[in-house]
Design a protein that fits this description.
Blueprint (H helix, E strand, L loop, with lengths): L11 H13 L3 H16 L2 H4 L3 E3 L11 H9 L3 E7 L5 E5 L6 E6 L4 E6 L14 E4 L3 E2 L5 E2 L5 H11 L5 E5 L20 E4 L2 E4 L12
Parallel strand pairs: 1-2, 1-6, 6-9, 9-10
Antiparallel strand pairs: 2-3, 4-5, 7-8, 10-11
């Protein structure tokens, strides 16, 4: 873990720029080289081993690759939910049915293109049915605090889970160098349960959450 002792704490915008600069320098081969190891680490998590529904996301650009993980979960018979960005930055959801079911969707006047699930759109509350939620991020620190991109979409997801008293496992997927000593924190930020990187898993002092028993 990278130390930040004796240095002033950067703000979120500065930290985001730092991480994105490194990610933007990665080639497609770099991303692919890490994706397989990341999938293997994540699939070994107890929280995913018996999950029936997992909310995940499709990686883009230099993000840690998720497609191998999505396909492996689907092959296990897991119901995988993927987000679709709404105009207000909230997230609707759709069921992942394989790589051919993903469609490019432009947002922000064409400034951003995401891969989103084709087919029926489920309401934002569908995420409360998940046994585990895989969260995108830019960094996670020693307390389990996650630094996101700043759009607020996953802050809404976490708030929705809290209101519904849903307790899925919250797991962030990152590169090894993105696990740091401390990230800037605001009052609305919530800690996650674990971070998975290509080299391993780190947990953050809370019990391993099992799969919920449904009636």
């Amino acid at each position: 873990m990278r130390q930040n002792q004796g240095q002033p704490e950067p703000d979120k915008r500065t930290r985001r720029r730092e991480v994105l600069r490194v990610r933007n320098g990665l080639t497609a081969d770099d991303v692919q080289a890490h994706a397989g190891a990341l999938a293997r680490r994540a699939l070994a998590l107890p929280e995913l081993a018996e999950a029936r529904t997992v909310a995940a996301y499709v990686s883009v650009g230099g993000e840690p690759g998720t497609l191998a993980l999505l396909d492996a979960l689907r092959a296990r018979g897991v119901r995988v939910l993927l987000p679709a960005l709404l105009p207000d930055n909230d997230l609707a959801w759709g069921v992942y049915r394989g790589p051919d079911s993903l469609l490019p969707a432009e947002h922000g006047g064409g400034r951003m293109t995401l891969l989103e699930p084709a087919g029926e759109r489920l309401r934002p509350r569908a995420v409360t049915e998940a046994d585990a939620v895989l969260l995108p991020g830019l960094s996670v620190d020693a307390r389990g605090m996650r630094l996101g991109r700043g759009g607020g979409s996953y802050d809404r997801v976490l708030a929705r889970l809290e209101r519904a008293r849903a307790r899925p496992a919250l797991v962030v997927l990152l590169y090894d160098w993105e696990v740091v000593e401390r990230v800037p924190q605001e009052p609305h930020d919530r800690p996650v349960d674990a971070v998975v990187t290509p080299s391993g898993v780190r947990r953050f002092g809370r019990r391993v959450r099992g799969v919920r028993v449904r009636a």
